[in-house]
Amino acid sequence: MTTDPSSQGYSASDIEVLEGLEPVRKRPGMYIGGTDERAYHHLFAEILDNAMDEATAGHASRIEVYVRADGYVEVTDNGRGIPVGEHPKYPGKSALEVIFTVLHAGGKFSGKAYATAGGLHGVGSSVVNALSERLEVEVARDKKLYFQAFERGHVMGQIELKGAAPNRRGTTVRFKPDIEIFGEKLRFKPARLFQMTRSKAYLYRGVEVRWKCDAELLPEDSKVPAEKVLSYPNGLADQLDEVFKGKATITEQHFSGLVETEDGKVEWAIAWTAAGFGESDGFSRSYCNTIPTPDGGTHEAGFRAAITKAVRNYAELTGQKKGTSITADDIMGHSGLLLSVFIRNPEFVGQTKDKLSTTAAFRLVENAVRDRFDHWLAASPKEADKLLVWAIERADERAKRRKAKEISRKSATKKLRLPGKLADCSNPGPEGTEIFFVEGDSAGGSAKQARDRKTQAIHPLRGKILNVASATAEKMHANQELSDVLLALGVGTGSRFNVDDLRYEKIIIMTDADVDGAHIAALLITFFFKTMPGLIESGRLYMAMPPLYRLSNRKGKSVYAMDEEDKDRLMESEFKPNEKIELGRFKGLGEMNPSQLKETTMDPATRILARITLPDSIDELTEAKPAELIETLMGKKAEHRFRFIQENAHFADDLDI
Ligand code: 28G
Cα separation of 311 and 331, whole Å? Predict the structure, then answer.
């Protein structure tokens, strides 16, 4: 029953309307977020929503969906029928025509800011119309049947009376999305339409949805029925049963309910699962006035608050102390929630208007659910206890995760804040690792070549370090060299020192075997002793013992001697009496090549290491005469200092040769 537009011509007001919908066709993405498969299915959702609005407003009880082989989908409701009389603001036009041809201002395309219960219908109807190759509307109202058609947003003639409708009431909208907009691949997916239709049916138990799909569109093994009456007297509870079919849940019964007050209606169904849902820990699907709110909002927040408070309260009442600090994430994180509210004048926020912001929805939901959940828990203590125990486990897991995270963050920041001159080892933990504090850059360079980079870190020391014996604490901490040492070790000083924080198993001081080297070692040992005696007490501090002499004969045999005494002894024991022996003296670490340094001083298999220990009377020394100890270490006479170190640097017997 199409009227040929060319035979009628356009009126001035038609042109105005055409201009009105032009932006939609020019930039469809602005109105429906794209032109893909999702987009044209959204057109269907829009029309279905309008029918649903009429149902939830209490005027319709049945909705029919018919997916046709010719590319049309058809939606029918048995509501009041879209008004067909002249629109007061648009003389000569029916209200129906205005609804379908005037682009209504409003946030979201679907204009849900206005939808339902007293709001405006069909804010999105004009957008669907604009993007349809053809759209037809039939209205049964006042026992008459009316008809109007549109193509690509253009009116195809005035609304016309098609006949009598003595026994029916309501609206039918059938449309075919425009291939010019959506492209050659445009094809409605029956499975998708069915799923969309069914979830609407779950959301409003007062409606019966009749689904019909032409058989040609369905493959042989399709799960989509050609015809089905979708009616769910238990609404969301029915849907949750479907979702959890065959899945184990924590409680035997799902918790569901429906509360209607002056301020609105709340319906929910929730179950808790140990199994999880594939990738995610849980899900929540919420709706306001049957419009999905994927980003949640005030209604979801109210629900979480209610459940959390009720569970804590139950824990308190039953003396399960651990349960009183359960968080919303503990109890809600692994749940499957369906939540639907109906309120007047809902407001949505966010880029896509996918989040409910009406503050009244929080109270509405919280009050309704809290009361019911308190009763539910009290009525079935067995179930309640199962749930509580499970939630406490979640809380424990959360605490564990947080700890693990803190530790990994700690080590991450430490790594970031290591001193630049430190050549760290690659093994992460302290087990089996050592750090060498090496005197001078050149020795540091050799040490880097000689080391086992997996387990040995090298930290060069530049010249003399601050003498902490006389320095104030402030000056000590301001000292770059010393704070680098602390950074490398990963420890704090004083009361914040913790042996477990040490990044290495052994701390090794490696200095030249001369007076200056001894001085540097003494300075370092003093620093450690003053700021972290625990480091020495725990036996983690060592001195490397580089040799002083190298003895070799003509046949290529060579041995190293630690000192004068050692040298004399080795001359006798290792070589023949008249053999010509070449004697080399190392003035410093820098005189050894890396392989010699490795063999004599660094390689755990061949080196000699001395553990720094404190005298047994350490308490006496530290408490009674700390000044004396420091004085001994740092006194003016170099020989004196050196002796002290040697005397106290007991050989670590388990380590050597
Ligand atoms: C079948 C597919 C989609 C609809 C109605 C019914 C009314 C209506 C629709 O009114 C204009 C603006 C606010 C009242 C309302 C009928 C009041 C009285 C309606 C639909 C007029 C829109 N009688 N059913 N729109 N309102 N079904 N189904 O779209 O003031 S849209």
Answer: 8
For residue 54, the 8-state DSSP code is: H
Last residue within a domain, chosen from 480, 511, 546: 546
| Residue 315 maps to a domain | yes
Q: Is 97 in the pocket of ligand 1 (CB under 6 A)?
A: no
Nearest CA to ligand 1 atom 5: 82
Phi and psi at residue 423, to the nearest 5°:
-100, 95
In angstroms, the CA 595 to CA 147 distance is 98
Write out the residue range of the structural domain in which residue 104 sits: 22-230
Residue pLDDT, tens place only, 529-577: 888 888 888 889 988 888 888 999 988 888 898 888 888 888 888 888 8
Q: Are residues 265 and 123 in the same domain?
A: no
State both tokens at 212.
Answer: 């019909």
Q: How far is the CA of 131 from the centre of ligand 1 (A)?
A: 21
Q: Which of 56, 121, 147 to mutate to test the pocket of ligand 1 (most atoms within 8 A of CB)?
A: 121
Question: Best mutation site among 82, 84, 112 for ligand 1, i.e. most ligand atoms within 8 A of its Cβ?
Answer: 82
Distance 157 CA to ligand 1 centre (A): 21
Beta-sheet strands, E only, within 1-110: 62-67, 73-77, 86-87, 90-94
- pTM, two decimals, is 0.59
User: One of 295, 514, 537, 563 is an active-site residue; which one?
Assistant: 514
Q: Is the CB of 122 under 6 A from ligand 1?
A: yes
Claim to verify: residue 203 and residue 61 sit in the same structural domain: yes
Cα–Cα distance, 633 to 636 (Å, whole number): 9
Report the amino acid identity of residue 409: R
Residue 329: active-site member: no
Residues 326 and 423 in one domain: no
| CB distance 83 to ligand 1 below 6 Å | yes
**Cα–Cα dist 512/438, whole Å:** 9
| Residue that finishes a domain, picked among 530, 546, 562 | 546
CA atoms of 431 and 415, how far apart (whole Å): 17
CA 54 to ligand 1: nearest atom:
24
Active site residue 512: yes
Q: What is the CATH number of the domain that holds 41?
A: 3.30.565.10
- Structural element, H or E, at residue 343: strand 335-343
pLDDT 10s digits, 131-179: 999 999 999 999 999 999 999 999 999 999 999 999 999 999 999 999 9
Tokens of 161: 């009376």
Domain count for the chain, please give it: 4
120 lines ligand 1 (CB under 6 A): yes
The answer to whether residue 514 is catalytic is yes
Residue ranges of the chain with per-residue pLDDT less than 50: 1-19, 105-122, 277-280, 616-657
Question: What's the 251 CA to ligand 1 centre distance in angstroms?
Answer: 43
Select which of 241, 281, 481, 516 is catalytic: 516
Q: What does the alpha-carbon distance between residue 652 and residue 612 come to, in Å, rounded to a whole number?
A: 9
Quote the distance between the C-alpha of residue 552 and its chain's center. Answer: 65
List the one residue out of 240, 266, 234, 267 whose CA is nearest residue 253. 240
Q: Is residue 614 part of a domain?
A: no
Closest CA to 107 of 383, 479, 360, 355: 355
Separation CA 47–CA 131 (nearest Å): 13
Instruction: Please check whether residue 500 is in contact with residue 492, taking contact to mean a CB–CB distance below 8 angstroms.
Output: no
Q: Which residues of 270-295 are buried (b: 16+ CB within 10 A; e: fewer)?
A: bbbbeeeeeeeebebbbbbbbbebeb
